[in-house]
Amino acid sequence: MCSNGDTLTSWQTLATAKREAILGSIPEEWRLAKIPTVEEQRNVTGAYIRQFLSAKEVEITETDAMGIVEKTTSGAWRAVEVIQAFCHRASLSHQLVNCLHETFFDAALADAKELDAYFADHGEPKGPLHGLPVSLKDQFHIKGVETTMGYVGWIGTFQGQKGDSRSMTFESEMVRELRQLGAVLYCKTAVPHTLMCGETVNNIIEYTWNPHNRNLSCGGSSGGEGALIALGGSPGGFGTDIGGSIRIPAAFNGLFGLRPTSGRLPYGGVANSMDGQNSVLSVVGPLASSAGGVKLLTKSILSAEPWLHDPLVTEIPWRRDLEAQTKDLIASSQLSVGFLDHDGAVAPHPPVKRALGLLRDLIVQSGNKVFEWQPPPHLLQRVNELTYKTWLYDGGADVRKDFALSGEPWAVQILDIWQERPQADALSIAENNRALRQCRKEYLDYWNSTAASSGTAERHRPADVFVAPCAPFAAARPGRYDYIGYTSVVNGLDLPSVVVPITKVDRTDDVVDTSYQPVSELDKKIQSDYDPEIYDGAPVSLQIIGRRHQEEKLLAIAEWLEGELKKGSLAT
Amino acid sequence: MCSNGDTLTSWQTLATAKREAILGSIPEEWRLAKIPTVEEQRNVTGAYIRQFLSAKEVEITETDAMGIVEKTTSGAWRAVEVIQAFCHRASLSHQLVNCLHETFFDAALADAKELDAYFADHGEPKGPLHGLPVSLKDQFHIKGVETTMGYVGWIGTFQGQKGDSRSMTFESEMVRELRQLGAVLYCKTAVPHTLMCGETVNNIIEYTWNPHNRNLSCGGSSGGEGALIALGGSPGGFGTDIGGSIRIPAAFNGLFGLRPTSGRLPYGGVANSMDGQNSVLSVVGPLASSAGGVKLLTKSILSAEPWLHDPLVTEIPWRRDLEAQTKDLIASSQLSVGFLDHDGAVAPHPPVKRALGLLRDLIVQSGNKVFEWQPPPHLLQRVNELTYKTWLYDGGADVRKDFALSGEPWAVQILDIWQERPQADALSIAENNRALRQCRKEYLDYWNSTAASSGTAERHRPADVFVAPCAPFAAARPGRYDYIGYTSVVNGLDLPSVVVPITKVDRTDDVVDTSYQPVSELDKKIQSDYDPEIYDGAPVSLQIIGRRHQEEKLLAIAEWLEGELKKGSLAT
After folding, report:
1. pLDDT band at B245, cuts 50/70/90?
2. Going by fewer Cβ within 10 Å, which terminus of chain B is more open, N or C?
3. Which residues of A touch B308 (CB under 8 A)?
C-alpha cells in the first residue's frame, strides 16, 4: 500500500496524464492558441466558436439532427464529411469548456467510411440514424475506449476492476443499437464524479463551464453533453437522469432534453453509481439542439426493439397515434397545461419566473388551456425526502469505494451529501418504497382531480401535462447548487419530462425582485445568489411533465412549442 | 397484556369464532347434512356437487365467464339469478373443501339488483363484466368486508391495525374497477397465512383440499380461488403470484390462470406480505374455468385504464394486433414452442411427463414447431436462489409481526422458511438486484439465440413461448411441497405465464418410473412422493411462458390449445 503522500502523488499523476491525453488526442491543427478569460469572452457559442470553422463545417454543425439525417440518408452529405466537422467542433468545444472525457476520432472516421461504402453499395442508408454523430455521457461503454465516469481510480480499469476482461471490449446495449441504426460515435462527455451532482466537476477534467455564460455551471451530471451540444460539437447525445441529470444540463445550456419513464429506454450495460438501488431508477435519455432531434433519437432507439435485449425495458414502441392525438388536441385548442410556478420550497429566480409567464402567454394565445398546478401541500417535499433516502440507502459505501481506489479528493459539491452514515436495512427500504408508492398514488389522484379545473371542453378530462421550472435558477453558479427539488421530484414520481428552452437572461428585464419574501432560509440563500450582471445571457428553460410512458405526447408538445417560440422570437 | 396461556386461548377462540361465522353466513337451506370422507368421495366436483343444485343453477354455474356475459349483457339472464346460483354453489364448495374466508351474499344480491335495474333503464349493460360473479383472494379490500389474509391477528383490524379508519371501508383499486365494469363481488377466498406457501392452510379455515382429489392440496397461495372455481362456485376470480401463487392453484385444480408481467394489472390497495420489497414483485392475475374467461377478465381490467389510478401499472392496453398476429402464426404453422421438460433440479412425476408429451404431440400435429428449451446450465437455479433471497430480505420480520398479534402457531409448511434470520442490508440488496438483472439478461440472450433452433420458416425468429411444468407433481400432497422452482423461476425472470390444464392422472397410464435416476436427494424425495393410487384423478396442467408484456400472445395460444384439447378429448 502507498503512504498517504504517495497516494496523493499517484492520483494527481494519473489525473494529469489523463487530462493531457484528452487534450493530446485533439489534432494539432485544431488546437486553440489561447482560451479567452470569461471577462474577455463570456459566451463562447455561436459567432465566437464559428470563427475557427470553415463555412461548410458551420453549415453541417449548425444543422440539427433531423436535418443531418435528411442529408446523410439521401446521400446529399457523406458520413465522413459530417463526422469530420463534428470532430473539429467538439475539439474546439472541449478546449473552451472542458466537456470531453474521451475522443476516438479515428474509429469514428473508419465507421463513417464504412457507412459511406454501405450507402454506395446499397443505394440506401443503414438505418434511420445513418451518418449521424451521437455523443455519449461517459457512463456508456464503447469498444476500444475507456470509461472513467470521472473517477481517477477507474483509469485503466473496467468500472474500477483491474484486469477485467471487459475493459476496452464491452459495449453497452444502447451503443450496439446506435451502431445498428447507423449512428457514428466519436466522443464521450464529462460527468461529475459520483454522478450525483448538478454541476460537472472531477479531478480529471476539473470543471465544465456553461458555454453561453462561463460564469456559470453547464449543469450535471450529463454536463459534458449539455456543454458540447450547446457549442455545436454534437447534434445530440445521451445522458442519464436520477435526480435531474439530463434535464439540468439541457436547461442550463438552452437545449431540448428528455427524461423518459423508467424502462422506456435501455440502460443495460451502462456504468452507474449505486447500481442495484432499484427504488428510484436512473434512466437514459437524449439531449439535442432541437425537439426534433430528441424525438429522432428516442424513436430510433425504440425502433431497435430494445426490450428484446434489455430485460428492464418495457415493450412500448413509438406510438404514432399518441403523437397524432396530441397534435390534434393542440390544433383544436384542447390541450390543457398546468403551471407549477413555485413548489412551496424555493422560488424561481426572476428570469425563470419570466419564462413561466412567456410560456403561459404563448399557450393562452394559441387558444389552449392553462391553469394553476396545485398538488397537495407538502406532497412534493415528501416525495423529495423519500427520493433522497433512496440515494443514501448504502450510506455512501459505493462512491467511497471508488474514491478510495485512487485516494483522490471529493469535489466540495459532492462532499456535503456523502457524509459517512449507516446503510439502510431491508425493513426501512421497504417502508420507503411503500411511502413513495403512496405519494405516487396521491399525485395520480391529484392529476385526475384536475378534470375539474383543466378548462377542457370535454368535461372530465384531466390536464395533459404540467410545466415547472427545472431549477430555481437559469443555471447554477459554481458551488451554489443548493436545491434540486424541481427536478428530483419528477424522478421520485417516475414521470417523463421534456426540457424546452424558453429565453435567455436579460440583465435589464430580469432585475432582482426586492419585494419577494423568502419562505425559508434556504429560499433566502438561493434568492441572494441571483445577480443580473453575472447571469446575463444564460439560457432559461422549463420542463414539461407528463403521465408515465407518455413520451410521445411530451415530444409532440415540445416540437409545437419550439415552432411557436421561433415564430415569436422568444428564444433569442 | 395477556399471559401466554391467555394468548393461546385468545387466538383459538378468535379463530373458531371466525371459522363458525364463515359457515354461519351460509343460509340454512344451503347447508350440507354430511361431508363425505375422502374414501367415500374423493372427487367432489362435477356430478357430486351437481346433485345439490337445480338444473337452472347447474346451467348457470357450468357456463364459463364468456358465456355468462353473453347472457347477462344481452339481457338473456338477469344478474340476480346468476349471482344467486353462484352464491349457492360457492356455499356448497366451501363446506366441501374450506375454500372461503368471507361471504357477502346480501351485498352481492343488492348489487345484482342494481345492475338489473340499470339494464332495464338503459337497455344496455353497465360494462363488459355486467352481471358476472367474480371471486377474490382474501388480500383484496372490499367495503363492509373483513380482510384477514389468514391471520387470526388481523380479525377485526385493517391489516393488523386496530382502530384504523380504513377497516371495512377501504376498497382496493381493482375492486373499484370490477364494480365499474359491472362485475358482482360476493366472496373472498382462502389463502395460507403469510401467502408464501404452495398449499392453503391457516388457523381460521384450517386446510383447503383439492376438490378433484381430496387426498391432495388445492395449491396456494390463491388456493381458495382454485378450489372454488374448480367446484363451479365461481366462473373466475383474481389471485396474486410472487412464486407461483396463481399458477399453482390453477394447475392443481385444472384451471386456466395468468401470471402477468409485473405492472400489467393493478395491485394498488391490495394487502400483501412483506409489502415494499420491490426486487421481485407480487402480481395480480385472473384464474378461470376457461381460457376465454381469463382473457375476458384481463381485457376488461385493461379497458378500465388502471394506469390512470395505480402508479405501478404500465400504460399498455389490450393489444388486439398481438393477439391477431399470434392467431396468424398458429394458422400458418409458424408458432415456435420450446419445451423445458426438466429444469435440472427436480424431475416431473410421470403424469406431468405424460402431459408434456401430449402437448408436444398436439403442437406437432398442428404443424407448428417444437424444440428443446435449454437455457444455460445452472441459470434457472441461480435465478431461484436470488428470488428466494428477495423474500428473506427482512429476515421474516413482517410475518413474525403478524403472527405475534394473536400468538397463533405457524403452519408446518411455513415454519421451515421463516427461521429467524438477520435482515439484509442495502449493499446486499443492491448486489442481489444486480445479479438478478444479469440473470434476466442471460435468459433474454438465450431466448434470442433460439432463432437458430426454433424451426420457424422465417429465419432469425426466436421462440414465441416455451412450455414448462408448473410443479414436479400434478398437485402437492399435504406437507410435501418441497420444490417450487418451476414457478418461482418465472417470477425471478418476471415473465408472463399462462396455465393450461392438459389431462388428469390415470393410475393405469401413469405408473411409477422405476428406471428414473434422481439427480439429487431432493429429487429422490419428490419422486418418492408419487403414488398412482393417491394421485388418481388429479388434474395435470402445464404453463406456457412468454416474453415480458406479451400476455395477449399467451392468451391467444391458451385459447387455441383449449379448443384443440377439447377436440382431442385429452382433457377428460
Report:
1. very high
2. N
3. 444, 448, 547
A163 belongs to a structural domain: yes
Number of domains forming the structure of chain A? 1
**B510 CB within 8 Å of a chain A CB:** no
CATH value at residue A265: 3.90.1300.10
Q: Count other Cβ atoms within 10 Å, centred on residue A472.
A: 27
C-alpha–C-alpha distance, residues B148 and A551, integer Å: 41
Residue B460 C-alpha cell reads as 432469425
Residue type, position A80, single letter: V
Residue A9 banded pLDDT, cuts 50, 70, 90: low
For residues B114 and B106, what is the distance between their CA atoms, to the nearest angstrom?
A: 12
In chain B, what residues touch A549 (CB-CB under 8 Å)? 307, 314-315
pLDDT at B149 exceeding the cut of 80: yes
Q: Which residues of B are catalytic?
A: 137, 221, 245
Chain B residue with the nearest C-alpha to that of A393: B426
The answer to whether residue B310 sits within a structural domain is: yes
A333 is in an annotated binding site: no
HEC assignment per residue over A147-173: CCCCCHHHCCCECCECCCCCCCCCCCH
Question: At B371, phi and psi to the nearest 5?
Answer: -160, 165
Could you tell me if B438 lies within 8 Å of chain A, comparing CB atoms? Answer: no
Q: What is the mean pLDDT of residues A259-269?
A: 98
Closest Cα in chain B to A494: B311
What is the pTM for the complete model shown? 0.97
pLDDT digits 0-9 by tens, B91-109 = 999 999 999 999 999 999 9
Please tell me whether residue B283 adopts helix, strand or coil conformation: strand
Would you say A242 is a known binding-site residue? yes
Do B430 and A274 count as a contact with CB atoms less than 8 A apart? yes
> What confidence tens digit (pLDDT) does each residue in A340-363 have?
999 999 999 999 999 999 999 999
Residue A4 maps to a domain: no
Q: For residue B67, tell me if it sits in a domain.
A: yes
Residue range of the domain that includes B187 = 4-319+335-568
B26 is in an annotated binding site: no
* Averaged confidence pLDDT in chain B: 96
